[in-house]
Every structure is written in structure tokens, then in C-alpha cells.
Amino acid sequence: MTDPLREKLAAYKLEHRYPEQLAARFPRIVTRIMELWGTPNLQAYFDELLIMDRHDRQGFPAEIGAELMSVSMAHDQIMGMQEEHHDVWEHVRESIESQLTELGFEASADGFQRAVSQGNVAAVLLFLGAGLAVDHREAEGEWTPLIRAAFEGNDAMALVLLQHGANIHATDRDGYGPLHWAALTGHEQIIQLLLDRSVNVNQPSLQGFTPLLQAASQGHERVVRKLIAVGADPNTATNEGWTALHKAVANNHLASAVALLDLGADATARHLDGETPLSLAQAGNNKRMADLLTLAAGLQARQRARQRQAT
Q1: Number of structural domains, the chain?
Q2: How far separated are the first and last CA of the chain, in Å rounded?
Q3: Pick from 43, 60, 84: which residue ends a domain?
């Protein structure tokens, strides 16, 4: 499996700042660093880790503290590089505008996004080579190039962006990241690229939607099975109480409902308004789905009764 932090540092020739011991002993911290990368919250997280001024917390060993400081400095350095290239378009015009023109793209933010959307790897590499940040957004809260590639199912583009350090944890203004959009659209190769880089399979959007809920809502059974196999919780609910099973049932995706039930989804889960998967099936006059859920609910009730007796 690849390491997104290592790739991010390598993209800026800062491989020597990779926190080897931290990654080996505290991998969750490295994951959290990447989740916060490029946001103001990361510095606060570094401060929390480094200061350790609470009486109930034991500080890190000196070598770990040194690595934390080093990767913190690397983050600042990379952010500084990106800030220096904030007006990157002048540099682009001076060096490679003619090459972009030959490929049919203008040296602008719109040109970069259009190159990503059209899957023109050569043009994207020219933009990145000129210093444009790989996670450049058209506007605050809009899609990063990787999110766009994930939604559109462009495997080759997604791989290029990832190889240049694209942030797999970046989200849009609603909290949806690349895995959410790849799961919604069923692009399995991109999902695998993200899973290979240890993306958080249970990352919720601002409304609590996980990639599994996205896949279930569209009936992508293979994606549903893949996500649960790598740790997705089949019973995670949105802020309003929708589970993946609710979504599969509501949209009449029988195969996905079967997969979810096979892999531990609760057939009696309740939405805030009291709706269960069974009540949704009944309201939709979906007899086959309703029969399945009635059977599953009965089996799960008997299983829970046996577990109570055993304890």
C-alpha cells in the first residue's frame, strides 16, 4: 500500500522529513495529519501533540517529538511554496503557455480544471510542472482535481494526481471527499487507488453520509461488499438516521440490500421519524424486498436472543 504523506513530501522533494518512527509506532497520528493537511487546524493539532502540557498525558519520546517538529516544518514549507505560486499564471505564461495552447488549453485556473475534466494528462503535467498546486480549487469549498477525477471515473488522471501528492482526505463544501464520489458513481478502480492509500472508509460528510451510504443508494453491490470488507461500518447512520440499508431499500436495490444484510446491516434500524427498511419497502409496495427484510429481522432477533442466553 502507498503512503499519502510520503507521496506528498516526495512531490516537494522533502522525503527526508518523513516521520518513519511516528508512522511505525503511531500510524493513526499520521493518518490524522493527512486528514488535516492544508487546513489551519493542522497547526493546532501539531501544537496539541508537541506541547503535551496536561497532567494526565505522557509526552512522546524525544525522537518522536523531533519527527513531529520536522513534519510540521515540512508542512509550513510546502504551504509557503504554494503561496509563492499563488500568482502562478504569469510563470506559466512565461514558460509553457505555448505548449498548453498547442494542446488547446489556456494558462488559467479554468484551463487546469478543464484539462483534468477532459483527462488530458499531458496538459495537467504541464500545469503541475509550472508549480500549480495539485489540490488547486476553482473556489473555496469547490472540488479538488482529485475529487473531480473520482466523480468522472478517470482512472489515469486520478493516478497522476495521486502520484503528485493529491490529498485523499480533501472534501468539498458539503464534506464529500474523493471516496464518496467514486462510491456514488461506482468507479471501482479509483476506489481501489484510494483504498491502497489508506483512505478513511468511514469518513462522514457534514450530513453524516459515508462512502458506503453513497454506494448503497445507487445499488453498487460490488462496491458495498468491497467497502465493508475493508472496514466500512454497515450500520453507520446519517445525522437524520438513514443507514445504507435504508438507502438501498428506498431505491429498490435488492442485490445491495442482500449484501448489506449478509454483512451485518441491522434490518430494524430506525430513522429519526421511525422509518425502518421494512416500512420503506412496504410503503413502496416492494413485496420481494419486504419479504427479505421480514425474514432477516426474524433471524437477527433470534440471533440476539441466543447471544443473551449465552451470556
Answers
A1: 2
A2: 40
A3: 84
